[in-house]
Amino acid sequence: MALQEEFESQGNFLFRHRSILPLVIIIVGLFVFSINRYLGITYDLTLPYSTLEYCCLGVCLFGLFIRVYTVGYTPANTSGRNTHDQVADTLNTTGIYSVVRHPLYVGNFFMWLGIALMTEKGWFVVSFILMYWLYYERIMYAEEQFLRRKFGENYLNWAAKTPAVFFSFKNKKKPNYPFSWKKVLKKEKNGLLAIFILLYIFHTIADSIDSQYFQPEMNWLAFATLICGLSYMILKFMKKKTNLLNEAGR
Prior knowledge:
There is one protein chain. The chain has helices spanning 3-16, 20-39, 49-72, 103-117, 122-151, 153-161, 181-187, 189-211, 220-241. The protein has 250 residues and is mainly alpha-helical. Helix 1 packs across helix 5 (122-151) and helix 3 (49-72) packs antiparallel against helix 8 (189-211). The two termini are 39 Å apart. The mean pLDDT is 88.
């Protein structure tokens, strides 16, 4: 198999299993954090832990904001969470897609970077960045091959002036569609919940190790997690049992 076809084959495989990377990051990150905290190993990030939590939350929410902004302006059957095959009924070239070709993967990067920073270890953060790049580089390659075959010259013209992952605003165009909160609530409801669950787990592990007994606190992270969890269940119910979140063409 030629290298080009091999890259595409690898990318399609990783696309279908791209939920594995977050699980690896979580498991390894929690292990590194717990061992270092238990052994009292000096941390590379010297911020007070509460300050670090706010900083990491900010990084995660920045990534979620990119995803929300992207999804809210896109039509149906594009920019989705499908895990089986590439789907694109139309080629998105306006709004954030006139600024960067892969905004959802950029958003994912910052969401998981915030979690990686919670480990307080520089080597783990650098390892995460390298692993993320190698993992998603193949996925982006396969996705672009799919778009190139389907949209031909239109795709090539757009790709020639739009960077893959680094934002460039010189060719920014207004989105073709109005922002849809319904689509955002339907598609991105689990992102916010995942962020607060993970931050609360890290916080609880830190407090439990420092105090030498398990002590889950009812702090602001716990209340935020509960609120997000309740919101998730309500939106899940609305999506499955009602048409309240449905919107024609979105």
